[in-house]
From TrEMBL:
InterPro entries: DnaJ_domain (IPR001623), DUF4187 (IPR025239), GPATCH11 (IPR039249), J_dom_sf (IPR036869). Residues 252-266, 285-295 have a biased composition (Acidic residues). Pfam families: DnaJ, DUF4187. This is J domain-containing protein. It comes from Symbiodinium necroappetens. Residues 272-282 have a biased composition (Polar residues). SUPFAM superfamilies: Chaperone J-domain (SSF46565). Residues 11-68 form the J domain.
C-alpha cells in the first residue's frame, strides 16, 4: 500500500504524506524514517519497492530544508494554476532540476543494500546537519560563515566530480555547474555565435560567470548544498573534505576523522599540538650518556690515592 501511494503522489509533500504547507524539518525527518522502513528494499519485497524508496528519498532531500520546501510549494502552486487554466491535469511535468538518472541514483547516500547501513548513513547525515548548523548559522558569524560556505561548496563540488569520475559514476547534479552537460551545450552555442558576433568578445557575454553563484549567497541554500555534498562524499566515498583523504571503512572514518566541519578539524589539531607541548614540557631533559675516557678515569683515581696518603701523614704522631 505504501509503495503505491508514494509512486502515485504528485509532489514531494504527498510522497511523505504531508499537507501541502511548510512544516518543521524534524517532522519531515520523522515521516521519512517511518516510511523508509516500510518501503526499503531490504524490508519490503514488493516489485516496485526500490523505485518507491528512491522517490521517497528524493522527496526527503528536497523537503529537508526551508528553502527546498518553499521551492516545492511554488512548483505546486504553478502546477495547480496550469491545471485550472487547462481544465484537466494532463501529463506530469518533471520536477525542477530533472529526475536523476539510474546511474546518478547509484551514487546517492541512501542507496544501500541493507536497512542497517541505511540507518547508519541517515544518523550520520543528521549529525552532520546539526554540526553544520551549529558552526555556520550562529548569529554574528553568519556573514563570515556564508563566505566560508561558498568556498567549501566549491571545493566539495570539485571533490565530488573527481571521486565520481574515478568510480565510473555518471554526471551528477553535485558536480560544479561548469562541468555539466548543460554547460558544455552552452559553450557549443557560444562557439557558433562567435562566427557571427557583431564585435569581438560579444558572444562571451552569453557565458555565465560560474564563480558568482548567487544562490550561494543565501545561507540556507548554501548550507543545504554543502550538507548534500558532504553527505555524498562521506557516505559514498568515505572521503573527508577537511582531512583531504579517503578512509578504508566507515569505522575507520568514525574513529579517526575529527568531525564534519573545518572548525572541528582545527580544534582537534590545536588540542593535539597543546597536548604534545605539555607532554614535552613535563618530561625533564635527560643528560646524554657520554662514553667515559679511560685516561681521565685513571688520573682521577691517582689523584684520589694521593689525597688519601696526604691525610694519613697528617694524622701520624710525632
Amino acid at each position: 500500500m505504501a509503495v503505491a501511494k508514494i509512486l502515485a503522489a504528485s509532489n514531494p509533500f504527498a510522497r511523505l504524506q504531508l499537507e501541502l504547507e511548510a512544516v518543521d524539518v524534524a517532522i519531515v525527518r520523522s515521516q521519512y524514517r517511518r516510511l523508509a522502513l516500510a518501503v526499503h528494499p531490504d524490508k519490503c519485497k514488493e516489485p516496485k519497492a526500490k523505485e518507491a524508496f528512491q522517490a521517497l528519498s528524493e522527496a526527503f532531500e528536497r523537503l529537508s530544508s526551508a528553502v527546498g520546501q518553499a521551492q516545492c510549494l511554488r512548483e505546486a502552486g504553478a502546477k495547480a494554476a496550469k491545471v485550472s487554466k487547462r481544465g484537466s491535469p494532463g501529463p506530469e511535468p518533471p520536477e525542477a532540476g530533472g529526475a536523476p538518472s539510474a546511474e546518478d541514483r547509484k551514487a546517492r547516500w541512501w542507496d544501500t543494500k541493507t536497512w542497517e547501513e541505511f540507518e547508519e548513513r541517515l544518523r550520520h547525515r543528521e549529525r552532520a546537519e546539526a554540526a553544520l548548523r551549529l558552526r555556520y548559522c550562529s548569529g554574528l558569524r553568519l556573514r563570515f560563515s556564508t563566505k566560508k560556505m561558498r568556498e567549501h561548496v566549491r571545493a566539495a563540488e570539485r571533490s565530488a566530480e573527481h571521486l565520481d569520475r574515478n568510480m565510473g559514476l555518471a554526471e551528477s547534479f553535485l558536480w560544479p555547474p561548469e562541468s555539466t552537460q548543460t554547460a558544455r551545450d552552452l559553450e557549443e552555442e557560444v562557439a557558433k555565435a562567435r562566427q557571427t558576433e557583431p564585435w569581438p568578445g560579444a558572444a562571451n557575454e552569453l557565458l555565465p560567470d560560474y564563480n558568482e553563484r548567487p544562490e550561494l549567497n543565501d545561507p540556507q541554500m548554501a548550507l543545504q548544498r554543502l550538507l548534500e555534498l558532504l553527505t555524498h562524499l562521506r557516505a559514498v566515498h568515505r572521503y573527508c573534505l577537511f582531512c583531504g583523504c579517503t578512509y578504508d571503512s566507515t569505522e575507520d572514518m568514525e574513529e579517526n576523522c575529527p568531525g564534519v566541519t573545518e572548525e572541528e578539524h582545527e580544534e582537534a589539531s590545536s588540542a593535539g599540538l597543546r597536548s604534545s607541548q605539555k607532554s614535552t614540557a613535563a618530561q625533564p631533559e635527560e643528560p646524554e650518556d657520554e662514553e667515559e675516557d679511560p685516561l681521565e678515569a685513571y688520573m682521577v683515581s691517582v689523584e684520589a690515592e694521593a689525597e688519601r696518603q696526604k691525610k694519613g701523614k697528617r694524622k701520624r704522631p710525632r
